Amino acid sequence: MNESKSDASVGRGDFLRLVALGGAGLGLSALSGCGSKGSVTEKSRQGYVVAVTHGLKDPTRVMLALVTATKLPKGDNHIWFAIDGGEICKTGLAEQVTSPLFRKQGNAAQVIEAVRGQGTALHI
Description:
By secondary structure, the protein is α/β, with parallel strands linked by helices. 35% of the residues lie in helices and 9% in strands. It has a domain of 75 residues. α2 packs parallel to α3. It is elongated and about 75 Å long.
C-alpha cells in the first residue's frame, strides 16, 4: 500500500492559531453585516401561526390546535391546515372531528367558525 506523507511541518500550536484566526475572521465578517445602515425593514407584524397537521385519525390533536387558536390575542393570526390536517377542510369532515377532552367546545367545524369570527385567516 502506498501511503502519502506530507512534508509540511505544521505543529499543533500553529494549527490552533490558524483555526482561531479563521474563526475570528468569520465572526467579524458576520458582525460587519449586522449594523448595515441601508437595510430595509418591514413593519413589525404581531400575530401567531397555528399549524393543524393531524387529521381524522387523531382528533384530540386537531381540537387542541383549534382551541388554542381561539385563545390567541388579537393580531395577525393564521391557521394552516397541512399534511393530514388538510383532510379536515373537505366538506362535512370537520363535523366528524370531536374529542372527549374538548366536549364543551363541540366539533371542529364549530371551533373553526369561532376562529373565523375572531378574524383569524385560514389556509390549506
